Amino acid sequence: MISTGPNIEGLVKQLLGVLDEEVGLLILRESQLARLRAAILERDDSVLERLLEEMEEVQQRQAMTDVRLEKIRKALGDLLVYEGSGMQLSDLAERVGGDLGLAVSQRRRQIVSLLGKARKQQLETTLLLYESSRINRLILSTLFPQSEAVVTYNQDGEDLWRSDRGLINSEM
């Protein structure tokens, strides 16, 4: 543990604020994924469209939060003379110690837990879409057994289905 000066203490408090935003965004993302799965199951296109727009807005907020988090981590790494590619929250909690270190550790555990839940929701949604696609292909092959593969097109006549790509972007 090192002694915390006013600069370090202030930066850690800023970091805690950004980590709280991160926690809120993860809770929101998990909820969105659950609602997305429900909208897919209920085939509610209007809810699905609104939800996808909301998810894009949250992604933009996430990107801004990530930038702020990285700036604070770098500043703390410079002040604490951390020699590495980027100061991790566990390293920071250990170096700062005390109540601030405990608060950083608590936020870190909460974020790790929420990430696990969000990844589980995302996997369940991905599996639902994959299984729906498989069933649709099976139905089409049953309805049109001797014809060539059925291809879907948009209103501009472009082929929509790309079998070499996943159904959804799985980057978290």
What does it look like?
This protein is mainly α. The chain has four helices and no strands. Helix 1 runs parallel beside helix 4 and helix 3 packs antiparallel against helix 4. The longest helix is centred in the last third of the chain and has 46 residues. It is elongated and about 75 Å long.
Task: Write a concise keyword list for the protein shown above.
single chain; mainly alpha; 4 helices
- What structural class is derived from the secondary structure elements? mainly alpha
Radius of gyration, Cα only, in angstroms?
22 Å
In the predicted model, the low-confidence regions spanning at least 5 consecutive residues are none
Distance between the termini: 33 Å
Q: Compute the number of strand runs.
A: 0
The largest β sheet comes out as:
none
Helix amount: over 70%
Order of helices and strands: HHHH
Tell me the overall shape. elongated
**Averaged pLDDT:** 82
How much strand content do the residues show? under 5%
Chart the SSEs and their pairings:
Layout: H1 6-42, H2 45-79, H3 89-96, H4 98-143
Helix pairs in contact: 1-2, 1-4, 3-4
What can be said about this structure in brief?
The protein is mostly helical and 172 residues long.
